[in-house]
Amino acid sequence: MGNLSAEKQLDTSKELPTKEKKIGLRWGLAFVFFIVGFIAYMDRANISIVAIPMMEHFGMDKVQFGLLGSLFYLGYCFAQIPGGMLAERFGARNIVTIAITWWSIFTAVTAASVNYVVLCVVRFFFGAGEGPMYPGNAVFNSYWFQRHEKGRAASALLAGSFFGPVLAPGISVAILAWFGWQWVFYIFGILGIVIALVWYFIGRDKPENHPWISESEKSLIIKNRDISSSEKKSAPWKLYLKNIRFWAVGVQYLVVIYMNTFFLTWLPTYLIEARNFSLKEMGFAASFPWLAICLSVLIGGAVSDKILQKTNSRMKARGGMAILGFAFFIAGLYFAAYAVSPWMNVLWLTVALGALGLPIVASWAIANDLGQEFAGSVSGWMNTWGSIGGITSPIICGWFAQEMGWNVTLLINIFPVIFAALLWFFIKPDKPLVQLENK
User: Fold this and answer.
1) Cα 376 to Cα 227: distance, rounded to the nearest angstrom
2) Does the chain have fewer CB atoms within 10 Å around its N or its C terminus?
3) Pick from 93, 90, 70: nearest CA to 82
4) CA-CA distances (angstroms) from residue 421 to 230, 241, 301, 331, 361?
5) Where are the alpha helices (DSSP H) in 225-286?
6) TM spans, by residue (predicted)?
7) What residues does each domain of the chain span?
8) Whole-angstrom distance, CA of residue 70 vs CA of residue 86
9) pTM for the whole thing?
């Protein structure tokens, strides 16, 4: 390995490959990650759907219930960087299979918890199981996708993740009504085990290892991906930690996931308590914001890649999209707080969460862009900060809602979002964090 320099421009000027005539295997595997993300976020969202009967069963108040979400993200946080490093070393196929199996077991065990203390322990280990999923996907994408496909590649898992809460309210409310809240967790735990087996059967770490891939697609990927060699190397953490841009990537993502977790944890309760929706109406209304973010990450990933192809500027393609998303999120949150009509409130919340999809997909694309062969480590770092946002959001927002009311909670959350938008001017995504030079 040669010298390390942090000031060389990322190479986006290489001639772009010709378009394929048909959908390649890599996009089929991306769809599998869509399903993986769908199951993962269904499992996360289910606890918020059954919050009221679950709080009654265990005698919890809002702060205690919020602690469950924080414990999930605490376990999730601890697994991020190790998950990314393990995926770099042992491959995404094995690590993602283990992760899905792990979290699915603890999803089912959630329903079997005998008291609040046991429930807290279970949610911590559930979070630890989901932790390696996104860094593992980042490693997979770095080997399987061309450099100008990173936005769309990242959007597959993200869109699946956010499609989960679209269907979770309706499905979970139906299961709750027919069988009780415990069966929500049992059923989705079983589904997760099935998906883990499917992924292990059809997934491979690299296109070079897959028996189903065509020679033309394999050559196209290898020629145009960012990975320069298959040699196993360790990420240059000392240089990363001295780089302010590395910290800016993480801190802005803390705010992103803080806000995402607010919606994931408290949206159903908010609609029932603050807007007087019935349980059935909530199940319908709560799906719209998640449908919006699902569509925004799919469209945003494609548009971001297209802008990158046309301009060769990651600041325009990734940073511009993130800042635009933050601006619309702020507007949506502000107007939601002052909306008189419950359904107008849902409309503005839909605008807000939909807009948040743009900085989310931009963040994961930039983690791949900047990390290259160390995408697992860089994305693990970024998602560690995101996990801190996930740890603090349920408790802080739950406390604000309990002590100051829901409208104040919405308005206060505007300020950290402004700060996150400003951090993109420090990220400077057109320069690599480090540049590997091979002599």
Assistant:
1) 12
2) C
3) 90
4) 36, 21, 18, 14, 14
5) 237-241, 244-273, 279-285
6) 23-42, 63-81, 101-126, 156-177, 183-202, 246-267, 287-308, 320-340, 346-366, 378-401, 407-427
7) 23-432
8) 24
9) 0.76
